[in-house]
């Protein structure tokens, strides 16, 4: 029986992975650096959130793009836990929207970028996830959103230069945002910003499943621009709880060098909310999150070891 198209694409990626691993084994020696996007733990005290990650062997954490915890207190919590900040997940609501037709809203987004870039730099993080539009607003205001957003972000380059933090653009499914849903659209957006300091991407295999023809091919298309890759399964649960081929995602990640220092695999199994930011302000269901973290890292590391043995 002839394989289906997605199976053929999986096989092509596997063949390339095996060939490249044999040709340059030194490039595959280092394992992927795992991180967790901590904002989904809601209002839980930061020390408790970090302890959950420490118990499960995490070395890195993606902090919430929020400066409500004083930077000195956050830095102390990180040092006490032994966990390093990888970067920050930007929270771009309709109230701080780079693509808004209202100048005051765009200004709020720019001021937010300035504050969080400085904050994450102080904590030792290296990237800041930027969403070109507003999460939770899937309908376009007009046909000029890309142009306004790109111009507004270009005006923030001075903040990235000062902080040394990389802005990474994340394509998000069309049910959540009005623009930049695919890797190709994110690359077009980077071209529109047209600044060498704004040239990196944040991927998310859940969003890729929704917007791309093939998750593995989308990861490979990102190439060296991919700084961070969010992990959640097809139902936005822990990897292994849905239908995404995690092995292929892992192989594609290795092929684009995601096991290099300064690049991260970050779990973000949020659940199927049209506006997932609701998790960031609610109470933490400790037993659910304990199990979610444990299941995610155990399954992913198990699959990574199987892939590495090929």
UniProtKB/TrEMBL annotation:
Q: Which GO terms describe its molecular function?
A: isomerase activity
Q: Is the keyword Isomerase in the record?
A: yes
Known Pfam families for this protein? AP_endonuc_2
Superkingdom of the source species: Bacteria
Q: Which SUPFAM superfamilies match?
A: Xylose isomerase-like
Q: Which UniProt keywords apply?
A: Isomerase
Q: Which InterPro entries match?
A: Sugar_Epim/Isomerase, Xyl_isomerase-like_sf, Xyl_isomerase-like_TIM-brl
Enumerate the spans annotated as Xylose isomerase-like TIM barrel domain. 51-248
Cited PANTHER family? 3-DEHYDRO-D-GULOSIDE 4-EPIMERASE-RELATED, ISOMERASE
* Protein name, UniProt field: Sugar phosphate isomerase/epimerase
């Amino acid at each position: 029986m002839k394989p289906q198209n997605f199976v053929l694409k999986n096989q092509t990626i596997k063949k390339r992975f095996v060939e490249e691993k044999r040709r340059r084994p030194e490039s595959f020696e280092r394992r992927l650096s795992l991180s967790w996007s901590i904002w989904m733990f809601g209002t839980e005290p930061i020390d408790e959130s970090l302890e959950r990650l420490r118990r499960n062997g995490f070395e890195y954490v993606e902090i919430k793009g929020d400066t409500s915890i004083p930077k000195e207190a956050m830095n102390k919590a990180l040092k006490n836990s032994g966990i390093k900040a990888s970067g920050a997940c930007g929270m771009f609501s309709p109230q701080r929207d780079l693509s808004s037709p209202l100048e005051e809203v765009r200004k709020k987004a720019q001021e937010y970028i300035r504050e969080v870039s400085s904050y994450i730099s102080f904590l030792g993080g290296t990237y800041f996830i930027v969403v070109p539009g507003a999460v939770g607003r899937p309908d376009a205001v007009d046909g000029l959103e890309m142009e306004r957003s790109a111009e507004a972000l270009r005006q923030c380059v001075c903040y990235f230069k000062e902080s040394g933090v990389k802005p990474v653009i994340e394509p998000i499914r069309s049910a959540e945002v009005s623009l930049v849903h695919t890797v190709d659209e994110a690359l077009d957006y980077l071209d529109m910003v047209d600044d060498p300091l704004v040239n990196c991407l944040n991927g998310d295999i859940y969003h890729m499943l929704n917007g791309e023809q093939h998750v593995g091919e989308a990861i490979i298309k990102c190439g060296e621009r991919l700084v961070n890759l969010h992990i959640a399964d097809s139902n936005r649960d822990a990897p292994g709880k849905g239908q995404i081929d995690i092995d292929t995602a892992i192989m594609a990640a290795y092929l684009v060098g995601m096991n290099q220092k300064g690049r991260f695999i970050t779990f973000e199994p949020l659940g199927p909310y049209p506006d997932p930011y609701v998790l960031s302000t609610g109470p933490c269901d400790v037993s659910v999150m304990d199990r979610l973290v444990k299941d995610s890292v155990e399954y992913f590391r198990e699959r990574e070891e199987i892939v590495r043995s090929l």
